[in-house]
Amino acid sequence: MATVARTEQPMEGGITHFLYVTSTLTATEFKLRYFGSALGYLWSLLRPLILFAILYTVFTKIFRFGGDVPHYAVGLMLGIVLWSFFADATGAALPSFVARESLLRKVSFPRAAIPVAISLTAAANLLLGLLVVVGLAVVDDVPVTPSWLMLVPVVAGMLVFATAFALLISVLYVPLRDMAPIWEVVTQLLFWGTPIIYTIAFVPERARELVMFNPLAVFIQEARHSLIGAPVPSAAAAIGGTWRLLIPLGIFALLIAVSTLVYRRSAPRLAENL
Amino acid sequence: MKTLLCSDVWKTFRLPHDRPSTLKQRVLHPRRSRAATTLHALRNVSFDVEGGEFFGVIGRNGSGKSSLLKCVAGIYEPNRGTIDVAGRISPFIELGVGFNPELTALDNVVVNAALLGISPAQARARFDDVIRFAELEEFVDLKLKNYSSGMYVRLGFAAAIQAQADVYLVDEVLAVGDARFQEKCFDTFRRLKREERTVVFVTHDLSAVERFCDRALLLERGAVAAIGDPREVTNVYREHNLAEEQAEAPQEEEGDHRRWGDRSAEIVECWLEDAAGRQDVLRQGQEAIFRARIRFNEAMVDPIFGVIFKNERGDHAFVTNTMYDGLQTGRFDAGDEVTYAVTFDPLLADGRHMASPAVAHRDGTRFADWREDLLSFVVRAERYTGGIVDLPHTSTVERVELSAEAQTA
């Protein structure tokens, strides 16, 4: 059995080391992205805003599909902002180990810090996006209620979900470079399979449960319900019963378990397999 | 106290012949992934390092030095064996790990420190010391992309030295800076040594090992070939290298690009001898003879015979020929053979040397045969000296009696 024992090393390999690396990497990543260009932060908002503008125009003016949905614009923007966070975090994390090969080969530190930092950087974007959503909600006369606070746990859950995926695919990408096109296809499927541009009401009754098994759908549905209130059914209502939420919850738990397991198995040999 | 203890460490790399890294390749050629060479980077390596020791690791390229350091640093996981480290490690495997050219020195030092396990708050507190050590006070606000490579390396070294570790792993990093920077690094390591910290030092610079290390380890093909007194270990290394080179490169080799001349005469072989006969290793100061056997293919009048001794750095340590010596060598016919001999006191500095014998026409500009680095030999001395040769000398130190005036001034 091979062991590398390190006694009296309070900082190395432990959770504090992980936190140091994660926090500094997040801070520098953030600095690099937003302090380099004049418009800085705004650029990162522009992408979801443009996507919003296109989808909103297409689905209210051309297909006349969203026009009847109460607060369609607010729900759409919320969905896009949450989705963009998920897509950004996972997309940037995917090649993150391979891209930092020299770092991994030269220092020993908790490897997970890299995808986690990337996910946190994307989360900073998400916060700004949510401010825009809230502004839009106020403009669109959505009543301000205490249920808006429910957005906090929903966003936190979303963060854990995206981070677990980010960790899993970044580790898998090291031995399996096919993960890049695979992940591209998966994100496409998830985008159209999740009620983002459409609402759950448009999904035929029988398929509704199936759509809601997807944890992403649960997060977005619950977020919309929290923000807009009664006109949007809660995730529990959409899936057809609170106990049924155990299925997406189980999928969520399974993802975390698989992600942790794969990471733990691969981490010690990550540097040499790059 | 043992600070570092490695026992029976094995490290194996599987090097796939054609790495299947896409799904299609895996599906279509499920067996191909098994076709791989197993490389034993480390075989059964055991050693221990005491606290406060300066421990050198030497060996040829690919002998496993870096793999060993990376296993100790925890970057690679050994396949077998145990590595125990008491205390915190600071790896100097590369200077400026994690440095980003778009950020300032402060941001980079904080990231670098976090990677080494130091809290950002502590790193900020020590930042002034880092900058002072790196002598970059004037350039604090610059982005790293505007730094020269020397400034970059200085910052990297200063950041790593601030890690306040118990064990420093140094991999050839000193080769990058200029001479002044290298001296500063060594001063720092000497200071660390006084503070009872441990330095494990991987290098190709044998003289540095002899100067600074308390003990040394020689790795050959991943296994421990010698361990102990640094001078003995470096000598084993030099002799093994010599033996291997001679086995690899047969003396007669046609089309050798390190051979010039019109071959009107040919150097057949050359060797060194002392009173006991042919030698590859000379004792410093013990009379030796360099001999070369030359065969004439054409008639030549007063050819010039000569030889150059070079040290490992390529300095010409000794150059002689029959023209310098004012020797009329005479007339030779095709088919004649002669032995050219130079009897000398080897005052050359300790280390490996190469001999390049040559035969030239009497005008001294056209060569009949010049064989660059034909012979490799080692000079062994009792002590280390920094120069090319060790001249016979004595040193004295005398106190200067100061006049009363000077004392009051």
Question: Secondary-structure map with pairings?
Answer:
The complex is a heterodimer of chains A (274) and B (409).
Chain A: E1 3-7, H1 15-34, H2 41-62, H3 72-93, H4 96-99, H5 101-106, H6 113-139, H7 151-173, H8 179-193, H9 205-212, H10 215-228, H11 235-239, H12 246-266, H13 270-273
Chain B: E1 2-16, H1 23-28, E2 36-50, E3 54-58, H2 65-73, E4 80-86, E5 89-92, H3 105-115, H4 120-125, H5 127-134, H6 149-161, E6 167-171, H7 179-194, E7 198-202, H8 206-212, E8 215-220, E9 223-228, H9 230-248, E10 259-260, E11 265-274, E12 277-279, E13 281-283, E14 288-296, E15 300-301, E16 304-311, E17 316-321, E18 331-332, E19 337-344, E20 351-360, E21 367-371, E22 375-380, H10 404-408
Parallel strand pairs in B: 3-7, 3-8, 5-6, 6-7, 13-22
Antiparallel strand pairs in B: 1-2, 1-4, 8-9, 10-21, 11-12, 11-14, 14-19, 15-18, 16-17, 16-20, 20-21, 20-22
Helix pairs in contact in B: 3-6, 5-6
Could you write a compact summary of the structure shown?
With 274 residues, chain A is mostly helical. Chain A has helices at residues 15-34, 41-62, 72-93, 96-99, 101-106, 113-139, 151-173, 179-193, 205-212, 215-228, 235-239, 246-266, 270-273; one strand at residues 3-7.
